[in-house]
Amino acid sequence: MECAEQEDWKKQGICSMKCHKEFVPDVVTYNIMINICKKGMLLEADKLFIEMEEKGCLPDSISFNIIIQGFFEKITSTKL
Q1: pLDDT at 77 over 70
Q2: 49 and 71 in contact (C-beta within 8 Å)?
Q3: pLDDT per residue over 41-76, tens digit each?
Q4: How far, in Å, CA of 73 to CA of 58, rounded?
């Protein structure tokens, strides 16, 4: 993710982590960021999930659970 997307990330308080060039997130860090993003920023959460895989950080069962739960919540909230 480019730092040009800082405004959205500043809202979630994780821009400083993502935009620091030397920071290399692990699966736990990605899971935390994805979990934060799924609350209103589902597309960003999905981008993080894809980025995670592209950077060689394999998602675990928690990663999949967070993404599935986020999409499920989105679907059920739009049907109400």
Answers
A1: yes
A2: no
A3: 888 888 888 989 998 999 999 999 999 998 888 888
A4: 24
Residue carrying structure tokens 């589902």: 42
Which amino acid type is present at position 71? Answer: F
pLDDT at 59: 94
Ordered DSSP codes for the chain = --GGGHHHHHHHT-HHHHH-TT----HHHHHHHHHHHTTT-HHHHHHHHHHHHHTT----HHHHHHHHHHHHHHHHHHH-
Helix axes 27-37, 61-79, angle to 10 degrees: 10
Residues contacting residue 48 through CB under 8 Å, at least 6 positions apart: 1, 30, 33, 34, 37
